[in-house]
TrEMBL record, chains A, B:
Its EC number is 3.1.3.71. The keyword Magnesium applies. This is Probable 2-phosphosulfolactate phosphatase. GO terms for molecular function: 2-phosphosulfolactate phosphatase activity; magnesium ion binding; sulfopyruvate decarboxylase activity. Keywords: Hydrolase, Magnesium.
Length: 260, 260
């Protein structure tokens, strides 16, 4: 099983994802928010790239009597006129239970939507559900591409860390013991970037929160007073939920992320 | 001091290097070869991107009565008609002493030549001289961009490891003790990629050779029987030499790498 890794939304080439399992990470905060919402009973999440489209999808859902929450951020801030933001802490079971979340974010929505165009199965990953995602990827048995959203076209430490946690869990599931030896894991074919991500995971596994102090975007959110969000997003393997994208086949259909 | 990192030759934007110290890494094998040749008394190295230009430069040097060696590789193999290849082991003091090396390689030449277009000072880095390069970068005191050549447009583990060794040495020189604490090094502003490279260095510092077993290009060279080259290139801080690019100012001038 080959495990590849992409560092930014911009580096996604949908055709190269054909037949593969793709896992998308935007740890601060889009995919942590999606995982939290789904774990708290959200019926599904629709991710859209621009704000006008988000409003249109939410209005359409309302017209179909589907309870929907319109949510999003730009540059870490709420969008004017949008009732909900991109903090996972907003999405308690009381707020999100039984509803569809329509979410537009700076990097995560772009990464998710580009990935959906190419991959066979698209899974939403974060530190919150890294082990469950690794179990799902192992069960599917196909080659895997870990897709980090990055931040404005640049590498982000926290996304690659979460991808590395999935690599680490997969290595421990499929090649227990190989991490102590000098040998490359034999049944897993790790691209060089997957090896680098694995070492990030080993470095931060005992304190993932520390990686946010070392990350540019983590420090930005800290300076905006979002410490509680950072603490939440750093919590490793809190949930066993694996959100998976389901493509709704109907006129004007949109992909919706649901509980696996 | 800001320390940034580029993962491939393709991601170099010369204008973004303005005023900075750039260090170029193509560990397997171009920059390890250049460092070895300079350490062994080579007068200077000219890197060119295409083979015809390499032949032209070598002929011009011969016409000027400058003893020159024509060398290069494509896909790890010697170039037909070129008397020398890209193995650092070829460049003993007897072979290279007092001569100019004209070198064309798959990735390293492209990375070096694109970097030369933009940066204020261009230094050649490898595992062989990581500490000396870090000392030089600290002395210059300017912002630093670590430029990994990568392999055919892709991330390469060994180049980023060597860049990480330079980050690690700089952190230990400028912020001794900070690696044991939870704090981000204060006088160094590390981009997220530099932090990730630092963790690679910490993971492999006791056995850099092991990284080549985990790297795609390292395994390719191993399968070609180049074990002695791999062992040589993995040797950490063997040399104190810091090759620096000097731009020759004359008609049809070409940049030449010399001992600092």
């Amino acid at each position: 099983m080959h495990i590849d890794l992409l560092l930014t939304a911009e580096s996604i080439v949908p055709a190269e994802l054909a037949g593969r399992t793709a896992v998308v990470f935007d740890v601060l905060r889009a995919t942590s928010t999606i995982v939290t919402a789904i774990a708290h009973g959200c019926r599904g999440v629709v991710t859209v790239v621009d704000t006008a489209e988000a409003q249109e999808v939410a209005a359409r859902l309302a017209g179909e009597n589907t309870p929907a929450l319109l949510a999003g951020e730009r540059g870490g801030e709420k969008i004017p006129g949008f009732p909900h933001g991109n903090s996972p802490l907003e999405y308690t079971p009381e707020v999100v239970g039984g509803k569809v979340l329509v979410l537009t974010t700076s990097n995560g929505s772009r990464a998710l939507n580009a990935t959906i165009e190419g991959a066979r199965t698209v899974v939403v990953g974060s530190l919150l559900n890294a082990r469950a995602v690794a179990q799902k990827a192992c069960r599917l048995g196909r080659d895997v591409t870990l897709v980090c959203a990055g931040t404005q076209g640049k590498f982000s430490l926290e996304d690659t860390l979460a991808a590395g946690m999935v690599v680490l869990e997969m290595v421990e599931m499929m090649n227990p013991g190989c991490l102590c030896s000098n040998h490359h894991p034999s049944s897993l074919d790790l691209a060089d970037l997957s090896v680098a991500a694995l070492h990030l995971a080993l470095a931060y596994r005992d304190n993932p929160r520390r990686a946010f102090d070392h990350s540019h975007h983590g420090r930005k959110l800290f300076s905006m007073g979002l410490t509680a969000d950072l603490d939440w997003c750093a919590s490793l393997n809190t949930f066993e939920v694996v959100p998976v994208v389901k493509v709704v086949k109907k006129e004007n259909g949109y992909p919706i992320i649901e509980k696996c």
